[in-house]
Write a structure and sequence with these properties.
The protein is an alpha+beta fold and 379 residues long. The chain has 12 helices and 12 strands. It has 2 domains: 3-46 and 254-378, no CATH class; 64-231, no CATH class. It has helices at residues 3-14, 16-46, 49-53, 77-83, 149-152, 192-199, 219-229, 238-252, 255-284, 286-294, 299-332, 343-369; strands at 58-62, 74-75, 88-102, 108-116, 128-131, 141-145, 162-165, 168-176, 187-191, 205-206, 208-213, 233-237. The strands form 2 sheets. Strands 1, 3, 4, 5, 6, 7, 8, 9, 11 and 12 form a 10-stranded mixed sheet that branches. It has a two-stranded antiparallel ribbon with strand order 2-10. α1 (3-14) crosses α11 (299-332), α2 (16-46) crosses α11 (299-332) and α2 (16-46) packs antiparallel against α12. The two termini are 31 Å apart.
């Protein structure tokens, strides 16, 4: 084992209480950053879950639509104009809107209705655990997620449960698992015509038209023709609409800024704690560093010792923080807003930990640069 590493290791573990305080500071900082960034990623996925699962190459929507939940309407005659363009295989209307779900006992709760042409697909429920999508074509049939059973007054498997939406009977014909809303408002899937009736959307209106293209069709060309043939609409790709919705919820609402502020606070706290600990440790060992200088060690060698101390702190602190992060991910997996940690995020957090700890070592290095080897002979 290199001597520089041995010196760093012994300096670091000489005062165990101080070392524990350093590790706690690093763990607290990285766990806080992990949670904040994990919430950011989880929130970003939750706000685009419907867009991600819609089978569409292009989205036709009213001008100014900010996100998927924006209930603006367009005329479904635009659908036939879209179908007249070469390369367009299908144009599927989608209706969304809020409504009240009334259980037989009389209690009500708000729900978010999503209606699509079930024969053409478009935006259908996924992760089905009970029933089939085809069952939604039967009268009054809807699909709900089992995570909202308590909210919706549903018991057992859910199949066959009844309720009312806008004083019209609905019956649960399919049940999904894991389709949760970041607003905590339950999603209710149904046929597009039934969705209009339950949300009060006039016949001949829709919120979106999902466009599917034939294979090998030039999407950019079709998009230009759609914009040319249809007025007062926007035509976005799935990626563009996903980014617009994510940007709206994360930045226009301030949610993203709050998460980043929490992450920045964690970095600052961790950096200050590590810097203070390394500085105090170095100051207590000034005589030892002066001895090394007196026997011929270069400043660069001593700097390596301090940097190795920082790297050891980073590795130990990050390992514990990563373990806690995995526990938190498992604990929040079934919640309304799960924390998401990707391999890329973990790599970035490790790099952040190293930079934070090595950067904190600068204060200690500055202290060592001022040490006079002659103090060894005054002891």
């Amino acid at each position: 084992m290199p001597l520089v590493f041995t010196l760093a290791f012994r300096n670091l573990f000489h005062d165990r209480l101080r070392f524990i305080a350093t590790v706690i500071g690093i763990v607290f900082s990285i766990v806080l950053v992990t949670v904040q960034m994990g919430l950011y990623l989880g929130f970003g996925r939750m706000v685009t879950t419907m867009i991600d699962h819609a089978s569409a190459d292009l989205w036709i929507m009213p001008q100014g639509t900010k996100c998927f939940e924006d209930p603006s309407l367009l005329d479904t005659r635009e659908r036939y104009r879209a179908l007249s363009i070469d390369g367009v295989a299908e144009a599927i209307p989608v209706v969304i809107g809020f409504a009240d779900w009334r259980i037989p006992g009389g209690a009500t709760t708000p729900v978010f209705v999503i209606g699509s042409d079930l024969r053409a697909g478009g935006l259908q429920p996924w992760n089905l655990v009970e029933g089939r999508v085809e069952a939604l074509s039967t009268p009054n049939a809807v699909a709900i997620d089992r995570s909202y059973f308590d909210r919706l007054g549903v018991s057992g498997t859910g199949l066959g449960a009844t309720a009312e939406i806008r004083q019209q009977l609905v019956r649960v014909a399919a049940v999904t698992d894991g389709i949760r809303s970041f607003t905590t408002t339950p999603f209710v899937f149904m046929d597009v015509d039934r969705a209009r009736a339950h949300t009060g959307v006039p016949s001949g209106k829709a919120t979106y038209v999902l466009v599917r293209l034939n294979p090998d069709t030039d999407r950019a060309s079709v998009r230009r023709q759609l914009l040319s043939n249809i007025s007062d609409v926007e035509v976005l790709t799935t990626a563009e609409f996903r980014e617009r919705s994510r940007s709206f919820w994360l930045f226009s609402t301030g949610a993203g800024a709050a998460l980043f502020a929490g992450a920045l606070l964690g970095v600052i706290v961790g950096t200050v704690i590590v810097a203070q600990t390394l500085y105090s440790s170095t100051k207590e060992h000034l005589n030892e560093f002066a001895t090394l200088r007196a026997i011929g060690s270069s400043r660069r060698y001593i700097y390596k010792v301090i940097v190795w101390q920082a790297l050891l702190s980073a590795v130990i602190g990050f390992s514990l923080a990563a373990l806690i992060g995995e526990i938190i991910v498992g604990a929040t997996a079934a919640t309304a807003l799960p924390i998401v940690i990707t391999p890329g995020l973990m790599a970035g957090l490790f790099l952040l930990t190293v930079v934070m700890c090595v950067g904190s070592a600068i204060a200690a290095i500055v202290q060592v640069t001022r040490v006079d080897p002659a103090i060894v002979f005054t002891r």
